[in-house]
Specification:
This protein has 1234 residues and is an alpha+beta fold. The chain folds into eight domains: 6-42, no CATH class; 65-189; 204-275, Nuclear Transport Factor 2, Chain: A (Roll), CATH 3.10.450.40; 279-606, Neutral Protease, domain 2 (Orthogonal Bundle), CATH 1.10.390; 614-749, Jelly Rolls, CATH 2.60.120.260; 760-841, Immunoglobulins (Immunoglobulin-like, Sandwich), CATH 2.60.40.10; 848-935, Immunoglobulins (Immunoglobulin-like); 939-1227, Neuraminidase, CATH 2.120.10.80. It starts with 5 loop residues before the first strand and ends in a 7-residue tail after the last strand.
């Protein structure tokens, strides 16, 4: 949709247009969808959506009693167990010799000899851990792949989960062995309890047909079969289902490789995503890398032909272009007949240099023989497409780089982009992270990370480099900066949320599920957005620094990019697997750091804390809670973890895990015997929606919400074993604060002190300034903890004071509100249970400063007042008499304002208020407030009635074709779409007004020859109404002349000054009178702000001082007394409207020939006009408030060209234009006598 007006500065139409185009995230990233290449999107779009049709997995699978028992035994032996809570299985188990039979062992007792192959030993280890993992039969459920050795001499076996011989998509684990051949860690994703019928109802051809139908529904053509349908169990982001897995290539095939999982029983699409790995960037000129001359050595040479193909590092540059006019080497390996390539060949040269760098880096630093570890030749395809602004890895084919379009982008083969794409291939041949949701985000992040690492490895850091600036060919923490045009860079690892570097709409989150986190289905589930979290983690790990989020500061000690790169490579290639997500990747980084240098582990944990993930092993939690003597459990949708940022004791505390809407994070322990169980806790959440709750044996004891500070809580247990549980829960929408809860200093102490608790008493309205609470003193008590809540629920009560006396005056309460109180007595570390409750309140106050609008608004009388402390609602009372005894309740509202839309225009009303407060004992009501009067202005007396056809407060551009009676109206409330009406024809002129009083202008015409009026009345479904008034020699001037909210048919015989009216407020009886004479131009308007149109005329006279304009108005508010004033000259047309927004029409004149529009603001009683330049010869003035700011705009229209020009009052009189209409179409709301 094009903007209704093209303006030089922002105005309401332009704002509307921007909202339509950009919407909300992720579309706000900008116009990055390539319409010519469906599915090739550099950020989220409809063709990269990830769908889940089958039922999603249950929120959480409960761990079996055996799993809990064996896990507790393993933890006691020093084994660290971390859980996938939705599956109820561990995602990481780390300890010493996990294959040895110990107290936590289970399974069939498989043993593998020390000299056995790692693949055989891996199955035995899984059998040994079967009880903890929930495995039924490791030999039947896992297929081990060949072991992979690393630079440390460790070996790693990846095992794919199977079910009745079928691969389980969603199940894979890695068993890790150290140099001695003993298993020290198992990590991955095991799907338990699969029970699926493996006999399909559909054939492979059926599945292919359904996938092709779905692909077509996405608007994608093509659909060549790349991978034939294979029966699998799909258990990723869906309940386990028998499915056909296949892959289709849509057009263009190099950018659309769609992986499908189609239910083999019912044909539903369980999962689909585009498996092409894009780098989401625009390009730029290669001089962005510095433009220096570089040499690539040991290339292939045949006679005089020199090819860009390395003989010792596996890369080749291929010219993808088919344009022989531009290149001599189209559709083949790039070559020239000399060894020095010309400047125009720098695209090929840059690709050669950068792929040489990339291959050398992975070979030199990580001993990796190309991306597949087997010396695969890396094809770098350049000059891809026509004006193509993308780069991507096409699995099994190569790396593709477009040349850009020369406007938005140029060539893309810069170093960090090449490193990014090459790492996608490394990932595919190692971790093989699924390119969707969180695994896909990590896939993107690892590519960003190694793109930056390689840049730092080869490029110098500029000595004058100052962030957020950039320097050509210099290393920095910006991604794509050497080829970015519209802003400094594509992504910013140093500050992912910084719009100053990446541009508005391209921000990424720097905190897990924090601002800019994307949770939708586009972009394969946000792979290009949510990668920012790990990007920022890696920056902090490398460079160190301070991170602030939600008021919490985290300091990270950096280890340098060289060390961080070693950990990154080992994390990706050794510990990550297909389904690794953020909940697991932290553990993978820690494991990699422990393998390489345990001194780096603290920095790794600090950096993960800084981005929202801390430690969550059970041993960590016991230490953090100061209660290692208790057995701890954590679960829910995300585990609690130990962290150092928010603590009560300044050392460690436990924090709830990051969760989404409608999820929970749970912490649990048990204790036995008589005594006091106590702890400190706090929360930072959305008030009264997200809570941290504490339970004993499943019964809620207390809950806290909002920004609660550290608070103490104690529970007295008389006997028996109790289960204590803390649960942080979120509702289904908004998040506030840090969105977490914390627990610290858990203590369990025995005690015999058990005094008899007294009753407490709180006063009921006895004091205006306080509630007094008192109780009987308790022998042995050192002090008392007094609790208060606004509801009768001690679980949510807060400690308001620690008092040594038995009386307390609570002044921090709202008058009229009922409060509930409890007390606990304390003797040292021992605290009693709560007393019985008592309630009290202060008196309710009366609202003040009531003000009613007096003709300011056409839709209502608007009331405002000052809030009364403690009031929860207000009764508004109304009468047409000033006697409050006659007033009746109009409404009860919780706001401090009210719009009385039932008030009739022109009628004076009187208003009063009372404050109200509901209590269980009854409703408190204050005394009556002071009153005020107000009235509603007639809609028909305002400027809007000219042409507001949809009632949204904005005039609508409207045209009338007299030859046919056709109306064209651009409705502002419908994004300025054109609506057509039919009324009138030859001999009729348009006279739109609100004739039926519904607030909408009606389509209406007047026949000057016969005096016939016709109207399509909007209040009656646009039924046609008719009237007869006027005729030859009479000009139609409909307005609301009687103040009843309806326009009246009115005509003027200008030759005599005779006015005739059919007044709606008087049953459309005829009224007539003289005002004016020949030579006067009529200009009726509401000049006295009483909601009634005044008769008014204008004439230019010749005086001794020259020409002078005379205005006369018969003011309805003054019994139609005549008021006169001067202003204007010949050639000027009266265009009175309310230009200053004070509710009163301003005198105004438009000189078409000169293009001058003058108005005299009534609000300031101006003697000199405000002058505007608009229009010119051929332009007529058009009435209305087009931007809805309650001020008239200066608007003109030229029929010959259909051109509208407007000076928009709400935008500082900014100029705007519109093309609408043309020859034969006149404006429906033109001022009379034009």
């Amino acid at each position: 949709m094009k903007p209704i007006f093209l303006v030089q500065s922002l105005n309401p139409w332009w704002v509307i247009q921007r909202i339509i185009l950009w919407g909300s995230r992720p579309a706000i990233v900008g116009a990055l969808l390539l319409a010519s290449t469906p599915g090739v999107a550099l950020q989220p779009n409809a063709n990269s959506s990830l769908i889940r049709v089958a039922a999603a997995p249950a929120t959480e699978r409960a761990r079996s009693p055996d799993q809990q028992r064996l896990t507790a035994a393993a933890v006691q032996e020093g084994v660290q167990v971390e859980w996938n809570n939705s599956l109820g299985t561990p995602f990481s188990i780390r300890g010493t010799d996990l294959g040895a039979r110990r107290v936590f062992s289970a399974g069939k007792g498989l043993r593998a000899a020390a000299q056995a192959q790692p693949e055989t030993k891996a199955i035995a280890v899984l059998d040994n851990l079967a009880g903890i993992m929930g495995i039924r039969d490791a030999q039947q459920e896992f297929a081990a792949q060949p072991a992979q050795a690393d630079a440390l001499g460790f070996r790693h076996v990846r095992a794919t989960q199977t079910y009745q011989g079928l691969k389980v998509f969603g199940g894979k684990v890695i068993v890790h062995f150290n140099q001695d051949g003993t298993a020290y860690q198992v990590n991955g994703r095991y799907v338990p309890d699969i029970s699926v019928d493996v006999n399909p109802q559909l054939t492979p051809d059926d599945a292919l047909g359904l996938a092709l139908q779905d692909l077509a529904a996405l608007g994608l053509s093509g659909g060549a079969l790349i991978a034939s349908p294979e029966l699998v169990i799909c258990a990723y982001q869906t309940q386990p289902r028998l499915a056909y897995a296949l892959m289709l290539a849509a057009d263009p095939p190099e950018a659309n490789r769609w992986r499908y999982f189609v239910d083999a029983q019912d044909g539903s699409v369980l999962l689909r995503y585009n498996d092409i790995k894009f780098v989401d960037i625009y390009g730029a000129i290669l001089s962005g890398e510095g433009g220096t001359t570089n040499a690539v050595t040991n290339c292939v040479s045949a006679g005089i032909t020199n090819y860009l193909r390395s003989t010792n590092f596996q890369w080749l540059v291929y010219n993808y272009s088919t344009n022989s006019l531009l290149y001599p080497d189209i559709s083949q390996t790039a070559f020239r007949t000399n060894s020095f390539w010309l400047p125009e060949d720098r695209v090929e040269m840059s690709a050669a240099v950068n792929f040489d760098y990339v291959q050398r880096y992975f070979s030199t630093v990580h001993a990796r023989n190309s991306y597949d570890t087997n010396g695969a030749l890396a094809y770098a395809y350049v000059h891809v497409g026509n004006n193509y602004v993308n780069a991507f890895w096409w699995s099994g084919v190569g790396f593709f780089f477009g040349d850009g379009d020369g406007t938005t982008a140029n060539q893309l083969g810069v170093l960090d982009v090449a490193g990014h794409e090459f790492t996608h291939a490394v990932t595919e041949y190692s971790a093989n992270l699924v390119y969707a949701s969180e695994p896909g985000a990590l896939n993107e992040s690892f590519s960003d990370i190694f793109g930056a690492i390689i840049e730092f490895y080869y490029q110098p850091v500029s000595t004058n480099y100052l962030y957020p600036a950039k320097a050509a060919g210099k290393a920095d923490w910006l991604l794509g900066e050497d080829c970015w045009v519209s802003s400094t860079a594509l992504r910013d690892m140093r500050a992912p949320t910084n719009s100053a570097t990446v541009g508005l709409g391209s921000e990424q989150p720097n905190h897990y599920k924090g601002p800019y986190w994307y949770s939708g289905s586009l972009d394969n589930g946000g792979v290009h957005y949510n990668s920012g979290v790990q990007n920022y983690f890696f920056y902090l790990l490398s460079a160190g620094g301070t991170s602030e989020y939600g008021g919490v500061t985290t300091v990270v000690n950096g280890i340098g990019i060289t060390n961080a790169a070693r950990i990154a490579y080992r994390t990706l290639t050794t510990y990550c697997y297909d389904y690794t997500d953020y909940s697991q990747v932290r553990s993978a980084w820690i494991s990699a750091a422990q393998d390489l240098n345990s001194a780096w582990v603290p920095s790794v944990t600090q950096a993960w804390e800084a981005v929202g993930y801390g430690g969550n092993t059970l041993a960590d939690l016991g230490t953090a809670l100061n209660a290692t003597y208790l057995t701890w459990y954590t679960g829910g949708n995300s585990n609690w973890f130990a962290q150092t940022n928010v603590t009560y004791d300044g050392v460690l505390a436990a924090q709830s895990g990051p969760i989404d809407d409608d999820q929970q994070s749970r912490l649990q322990t048990t204790f036995s015997g008589a005594g006091i169980f106590s702890f400190w806790w706090k929360v930072s959440s959305e008030a009264n929606y997200d809570y941290l709750r504490f339970f004993i044996d499943g019964q809620e004891q207390k809950k806290i919400t909002s920004e609660a500070s550290w608070a103490y809580y104690a529970y007295t247990n008389l006997s028996g074993t109790r289960t204590a549980t803390w649960v942080y829960t979120k509702d289904s929408s908004v998040s506030n604060g840090y969105d977490a809860g914390w627990v610290d200093q858990v203590a369990w102490a025995a005690s015999d002190w058990a005094p008899i608790l007294p009753a407490i008493s709180a006063t009921d309205g006895d004091y205006a300034d306080r509630i007094r609470i008192s109780w009987s003193a308790i022998s042995g008590a050192t002090d008392y903890l007094l609790y208060r809540n606004s509801v009768n629920n001690s679980n949510q009560a807060q400690i308001i004071v620690t008092n040594t006396s038995a009386t307390y005056d609570d002044t921090a309460v709202v008058p009229g509100s009922l409060y509930y109180y409890w007390m606990q007595a304390r003797n040292g570390a021992v605290i009693t249970p709560l007393t019985a409750v008592d309630s009290g309140y202060r008196n309710l106050q009366t609202p003040t400063a009531l003000a009613a609008s007096k003709g300011t608004y056409t839709d209502s009388v608007r009331l405002t007042w000052t809030a009364a402390a403690g009031a929860t609602s207000y009764q508004v009372l109304r009468s047409t008499s000033s006697d409050s005894a006659t007033a009746a309740v109009l409404v009860e509202t919780g706001a401090t304002s009210y719009n009385d839309t039932t008030a009739q225009p022109g009628v004076t009303y009187y208003y009063w208020l009372t404050s109200r407060k509901w209590r269980p004992e009854g409703i408190l009501t204050s005394s009556l407030s002071s009153g005020d009067s107000g009235w509603r202005r007639s809609m028909a007396a305002t400027d809007k009635a000219f042409c507001d056809f949809d009632g949204d407060g904005k005039a609508d551009p409207a045209l009338y074709q007299s030859a046919t009676g056709k109306w064209l109206i651009m409705m502002s409330s419908n994004f300025y779409q054109t609506t057509t009406f039919q009324l009138g024809g030859a001999g009729y002129t348009p006279v739109p007004q609100d004739f039926d009083g519904d607030g909408l202008a009606d389509i209406a015409v007047y026949a000057s020859a016969s005096g016939q009026w016709l109207a399509l009345l909007s209040a009656y479904g646009y039924m046609q109404g008719a009237a007869s008034l006027g005729g030859s020699g009479y000009t139609a001037l409909p307005r609301d002349y009687d103040g009843d909210g309806k326009a009246d048919p009115v005509v003027l015989q200008q030759a005599s000054g005779l006015w005739k009216a059919l007044l709606s407020g008087q049953g459309y009886s005829l009224a007539q009178g003289y005002f004016g004479d020949a030579g006067y131009t009529p200009c009726p308007a509401d000049f006295d702000n009483d909601g009634t149109t005044d008769l008014a005329i204008f004439q230019v006279r010749q005086t001794v001082m020259g020409e002078l304009g005379y205005w006369f108005a018969a003011l309805s508010a003054s019994a139609y007394a005549t008021r006169g004033w001067n202003g204007g000259q010949s050639g000027q047309l009266p265009v009175p409207q309310d230009y200053d927004g004070d509710g009163q029409a301003d005198a105004a004149l438009y000189a078409a020939a000169a293009g001058i529009w003058n108005y005299w603001p009534s609000a300031t009683a101006a003697t000199m006009p405000t002058s505007l330049t608009i229009g010119g010869s051929g332009f007529v003035a058009v009435a209305g408030d087009y931007d809805g700011d309650r001020k008239a705009d200066a608007v003109v229209y030229r029929e010959t060209t259909g051109t509208w020009v407007a000076l928009i009052s709400g935008s500082g009189w900014a100029s705007a234009t519109l093309s609408f209409g043309g020859s034969g179409y006149e404006p429906a709301a033109a001022f009379p006598s034009q």
